[in-house]
Amino acid sequence: MHDVLSLSLVVSAIALPDSINPSLILADFYLAAGPHATRRTAVFAITVFLVTFLGGVLIMLGLAELVSSFLPKLSSDVKYALITAGGVSLGLGGIAIWVKRKALADRRSTRAKTDKAHGQSAVLMGAGIAGVELLTAFPYFAAISIIVGSNASSPGKVFLLGIYNLVYALPLIGISVVCAVMGPGASGFLNRIRNAALTRWPVVVAPLAVALGLGLTAFGVLRLVGG
User: Residue 100 and residue 94: Cα distance in Å, rounded?
Assistant: First the structure.
């Protein structure tokens, strides 16, 4: 149980910067500006969670089989080495985002879909975007590797995967809550957040990813050195 709780903090730390996903958040903002905002944003959030979670389960099962064929009994050193590698990857990703922050902030690819967004099914939008994002979800892959390399039971590993995806979906859940609480007034409020997010998200994500990456790296290295 202690191992699962500590790993919950690790996977949450990886998922937190990954949750600030412009493609998903901006698509959800457009749904929030249309009719039935609360229902559609809630369906979108649930769909993203399920697609990413189930995809993670399939990846985890395949990775577990691959790893077990090479390392029948994973040691704690392997687990902490994976945590260290995940921290380094997260930190490097944050540095890359910071270096390209101006180019990333100028991207408006999601805006090209604005006119069609309101007429599309929230389920299809959520499944489509989440499926595409899953193909290049390197932080998610790192978290899955850590989960597979842990000593947690099978239910524990599924629980850890669920924790990651819950944190990953937090911004989408937040948008649904705002729509439910504020009603028609949510659109203007969310539009202001959207406009700020379009230009400032790299400045938020990059330092957060680097800080969490350094923390995970330090944790993994200290555990390796301390035995």
Answer: 10
CA nearest neighbour of 128 among 21, 47, 198: 47
Is 227 part of any domain?
A: no
Which of 51, 2, 5 lies closest to 168, judged by CA?
51
**133: pLDDT confidence band, cut at 50, 70 and 90?**
confident
Decide if 107 is inside a domain.
yes
Torsion sign across C-alpha atoms 19, 17, 30, 129 = negative
Helices (H), 100-153: 101-105, 114-117, 122-135, 138-148
The overall average pLDDT reported for the chain is 79
Q: How many domains does the chain have?
A: 1
Whether residue 226 lies inside any domain: the answer is no
